[in-house]
Amino acid sequence: MSLRSYGQWDAVPFDHPREECGVVGIYSPGAHSATLTAIGLFALQHRGQESAGVAAAEDGTIRVHTGMGLVSEAFHDGDLDRITGDMAVGHTRYSTTGSSDACNAQPLVVDGGNGKLAVAHNGNIINAVQLREQLRARWDCQFETTTDTEVIAHLLANSPGATWPERLFSGMRMMHGAFSLALLTPTALIAARDPLGIRPLCLGRLPADNGSGWVFASETCALDHMQAEFVRELEPGEVVVITGDGIHSEVYRGEKQRDRALCVFEWIYFARPDSMMDDRLMHTVREEMGAELAREHPADADLVIGIPDSSTSAAVGFAKESGIPFANGLVRNRYVGRTFIEPEQQRRDRGVRQKFNPMPAVLRGKRLVVVDDSIVRGTTTPHVVELLRKAGASEIHLRVCAPPIKHPCYLGVDMATRQELIAANKSIEEIRELTGADTLGYLSVSGLMGVAKPDKGKGGFCDACFTGNYPVPVQLDFSKMALERAAS
Fold this sequence. Notes:
Elements: E1 21-27, H1 33-43, E2 51-58, E3 61-68, H2 71-74, E4 87-93, E5 108-112, E6 115-125, H3 128-139, H4 148-158, H5 164-174, E7 177-184, E8 189-193, E9 202-205, E10 214-217, H6 220-225, E11 229-233, E12 238-243, E13 246-251, E14 261-263, H7 265-270, E15 276-277, E16 280-281, H8 282-296, E17 303-306, H9 312-322, E18 330-332, H10 344-355, E19 356-358, H11 360-363, E20 367-372, H12 381-390, E21 395-400, H13 422-425, H14 428-435, E22 439-442, H15 445-452, E23 460-462, H16 464-467, H17 482-487
Parallel strand pairs: 14-23, 17-20, 20-21, 21-22
Antiparallel strand pairs: 1-4, 1-10, 2-3, 2-4, 5-6, 6-7, 7-8, 8-12, 9-10, 9-11, 12-13, 15-16, 18-19
Helix pairs in contact: 3-4, 4-5, 8-9, 8-15
């Protein structure tokens, strides 16, 4: 269940898929690119809250500053002023490979046969352990972190090829998994997307009154905050290189062409509702998911409420389709401190009340449809249901605008192990009993794909967490700590 807000995070262990990462790249001659990059990172804060950083290039030198925590915590007075240059890349992180540690903060800067390279990465390379050993043996690469991003950095800094697209294509033949990359050399800004397009990446253009130039970002909402005009999404396997000579693009053509497999959770949950993907507004897409959920699992109720904030759009769609009025039944406390520490069980018992306050005057005596975006472990949903009952709700009909999550993600989302996934181990009726809801309904896979329209849009989606059909072969025992264990 998602209980996170856009732009604030705390230590309470809420039950939802953890965000991936956000990347930004700026090429803007005459502007302070690091500052613009930080603005973009603020817009992508929802994608990761563990660390943030910016690297900029000027006069053949790459300078980098990283810090732990939110963007506002990673940068202090004067930090961005010391990172000068016309080009910059930035990153906000949630760890999907490697622990949350200062050494794993990005961008990472390495030096190899192709010169210095700064890398900001969103995704997960599932064969990172094997690649790291190959890099040590072939080029005597020295590793200082436990993240797959450093593996990518050394691989690309040493890959054969006369041009950066050739080097990226060489790397794409070796890297298995998901990646959207913002790369910086002393003379070029580079963006690349994996051949399946699992992670998103878009291109925008800055207006003349804001420094002109180009912008790469994980989501279009970052372009909006930088006052950049959206140009297009990068194609799967595309590499875009920007230098003083202009912009150049090439698309990887592998041995076997496969359809795009964009993570469908971008549409359900990860992307901000004001972002565009496939020329569709995520808020509207989620409204359509809520409407389909209402058709599949109608309820006789008085009010529809959503778990704020990520489920609000779907709840509005459910209300419109069902004709049941929408109401704000829970108020979110957006300022719960990140250092709030209690023993684990107490955090589970008290965390929901710390995060939400119900409104009894709205809820008392009402039969509620409660819309949520997903249930992963099922550890906190019962506390939400109990909170609403104590506020006076007479019935609670839980509706989830994602299908049951039965399989782990190995491609850039830290979700849970199969043993921890409640839908992998219990029936829907057993889950309903555990949550304490009167009824429970999940959006079907066919209903979800009917909204996403993979056959009519710009490509397909990865739905492996629901179906087990992974777009690439995966190691079923893969762990985010695999590189740390291999190094020990």
